[in-house]
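haha ok so turns out i had the wrong file open the whole time. this is the CORRECT one, sorry everyone. sequence first:
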Amino acid sequence: MLVRDIIDAIESFAPPALQEEYDNSGFIIGDKTDECSGVLLTVDVTPEVVHEAKASGCNLIVSHHPLIFSGIKRLDGSSRQQKAIMAAIRNEISIYAAHTSLDIAPYGVSQRMASMLGLSDIEPLEPKEDTLLKLQVYVPEGCLEIVRDTLFKAGAGRLGNYDACSFSTSGTGTFRAREGANPFVGCIGEFHREKEVALQMVLPVWRRNEVEKALLNSHPYETPAYEFVAMHNHIPGTGLGAVGTFEAPMLPGEFIEKVKSTFDSPIVRCSNFNPETKISRLALCGGSGGSLIRKAISSGAQAYLTSDVKYHDFVDYPDNIIIVDIGHHESENCSKKIFYDIISEKFPNFAIRNSQADINPINYL
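then structure:
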């Protein structure tokens, strides 16, 4: 088992290409070719977490928050971040982070929170657009199955809970091979007609290079005719936040108690509300979700659950939606369970540990 095997499993669930532009999800420290002795799961990477990994025999830390988020000009141990970086390097511990990539991925942080609360009909609050391409390629009829199956294996033709998705139409292609060509069919200088199939399938934008390479390696023509077209559709389930419905509507007080018990949050901050309001539709976002308040309102939700809400957001929206703010750590602690499920499903007998040193840095007194 190599470090990269664990990373490949995580990235098949939450591709780094999904992350927001400002983010730094991905492999941060280490060597992917190292043999992996164990994985330690955490929300934040601190010096204590790195020392725990060393003591427990884990040489890979998988975190939600990236240890290195922006540029570092020196490594002199003058901050806790630098101490953690230096300890990881000294002890040959690799560090991988899935931050907004895990937030945006289908069944990511916010959708996991929604499931924990018992919501149904869950969908992203802000779908991630421009994540799909459409490939169209013209293939000789006799080579269709080989090319199509190779493209499927490279990651094309997957949509939601379906794979091997394609559409094809038959027609006649024409060409004339010029001097210097090496045609698969036809002769140099002769006008040629060939029965061909126009093959279409969709693919995630981050699979383009692999799919294009597979296409060129499997297509019999010296110069195949193909195109990738950007689509404004989004991959089902992909996006920030989540919105869903409760089977049985709840009063605000009942809902708040459910939030506190579900996410082990001793207190919450919430806007003023009518205690008789029925909450049947809930919007939520793990982490700092203040920027999605208007999306939550437009979704038809009666309440919005997130963290790090600014004072003026409570001032501006009391008549539109009930805002419930839990701690940032509480809202994203479920990321460890997501990582655990991804890794254990692929490698059921592998050593995976939840960090005991990963604690909420905020005390409630």
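Residues 24 and 69 are 6 Å apart (CA to CA).
again sry for the mixup
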